[in-house]
Amino acid sequence: MRPTPFILFAALLACAKADPKTPDGAFAMLAPCVDRSDARCLYEGLDRDSQWSVQTIYRALSEISTLANATYPDSRRRDAYGSWAGLSKAPDPAGLFEAYCRQQNCLDRIKKGFGAVINVVKKSRNAVLLETTRGGQFEMRQAEGRFGLALFQEALQREKIRVLDRLGQVKQDARAFDEMRKAGNMDGLGLETRE
User: What is the sign, positive or negative, of the torsion defined by CA atoms of 146, 151, 154, 155?
Assistant: First the structure.
């Protein structure tokens, strides 16, 4: 069996110093994840702010689930999640990122430009842009002494804001459903739901 280009690349990167304290070292640590097409593994290589966004989304979806199961009528529970219904079943933040990555085809985006680092361009005190032999550009950000992949940071922050807004709407709806239940009027289910 012939090794794939990614396996050869992973072996090459293994020879490089894989150290999350340096941007190219942190990038090298992503090679096994990319080789296995393992977004769950990739989660560990994200920058701190991206991981925090994923963790916030996960907690918010867990809270939505708790509220929906406790207060929403059975027929309306799926509505509570809006466009995050597919992500709401994730067992943990890494699983949520894996499902998100599958939806967004993020591994395809990474694989397309993943290669040996040929240039490191400093963007700010804590951010660099890595340029690869395959023409890829990958932003890496440093926090708490380690670098991580910041390629999805902005998109994840937008999703975090949207899901927190959704949670606010679910809390309002949950109070309304509770009041309707106490009043014995579960027929009036025409509550507004927002995306």
Answer: negative
CA atoms within a 13 Å half-sphere pointing along the CA-CB vector of 187? 2
Give the span between the Cα atoms of 141 and 49, in whole angstroms.
9
Could you give the CA distance from residue 9 to residue 4 in angstroms, rounded to a whole number?
9
Round to whole Å and give the CA distance between 148 and 141.
Answer: 6
CA angle (31 as vertex; 27, 33 as ends), nearest 5: 110
Task: Read off the amino acid at residue 160.
Answer: K
pLDDT in tens, 103-142: 999 999 999 999 999 999 999 999 999 999 999 999 999 9
**Residue percentage of the chain with pLDDT more than 90:** 70
Instruction: Report which of 110, 111, 64 is spatially closest to residue 90, judged by C-alpha positions.
Output: 64
187: its two tokens: 């027929």
Contact in structure between 160 and 152 (CB atoms under 8 Å): no
| pTM reported for the whole predicted model | 0.83
Q: Are strands 146-149 and 127-132 parallel, antiparallel or unpaired?
A: unpaired
pLDDT digits (tens, 9 = 90+) for 74-84: 888 888 998 89
Q: Give the 3-state secondary structure of residue 149.
A: strand
